[in-house]
Amino acid sequence: MGKGLVRRIIDARWAYLFILPAYIPFIIFIVYPLLNGVRLSFYDATLSGQEFIGLENFQRLFQDEAFLKAIRNTIFFVFGVVPVVVFLALFIAVMVFPLRKHVQSFFRLAFYLPVVASGVILSMVWLWIYNPTFGLFTYILTSVGLPRVAWLGGTTTALPSLALVVLTWILGVPIILYLAALGNIPTSLLEAALIDGANAWQQFWRVTFPLLLPTTLFVLVTQTIGVFQVFVVILLMTRGGPAYSTMTIVFDIWQTAFDFYHFGYASAMGVVLLLIVGTIAVVQYRFLGREVEY
Q: Taking all residues of the chain, what is their mean pLDDT, rounded to a whole number?
């Protein structure tokens, strides 16, 4: 087994040489910081120096009420946003796909535009929309006689409000992926189902949806990882408040490292985040990967 692997690497040495320019920045900017972050999690690392303390950072983490609340908020955020993204993206793609090509192109552009727009700009726009004095939502509520709502100022409304913001700007990529996947489904399969008497719903559920499982798995895993790392919207709109109700793991890591300069403790938080995301990704592959054929 080992000799066979070495032989394949030797045989493909020129291929590895050609991809080397891409691997060098990957190792420098991804692999090395990751490994160094794991190493720092075992140290009391500050601006003044580093001292090895073993597992003390991890023991302290699980006694830290703010961090435990950040974990709960993050998991609620992810499980509130990702399933909605998958459902809406699939629904919109199925609705848009039968339209003419130029109409499809319009919807692709419309939904993808927030993806390439700056997160800072989008956060500023949503801050105006949520403004309890003169925001768009306030105007709509007061127009129909309802009271004003401090969307970002209440502990029960702040996190769902941020979830809506994130939902609007990450929906574009899954829609485009589903549209591409729908275009790759052989029309002969749908025609065969139609000849066998299948209605539109049966065609979708029995033919289209199973063939979209590889795309669904990819969207589910990548969006889960992406939402776990949401940061800009938290920083600019709430900074984890009110009363830690929007504190997430990534924002807690940033605050611990760059506000308080406890780099070792922040690295331990990063390791915990890595384990949580990795576990969820493995579970997703476990339950969906069995049905996927590449």
A: 89
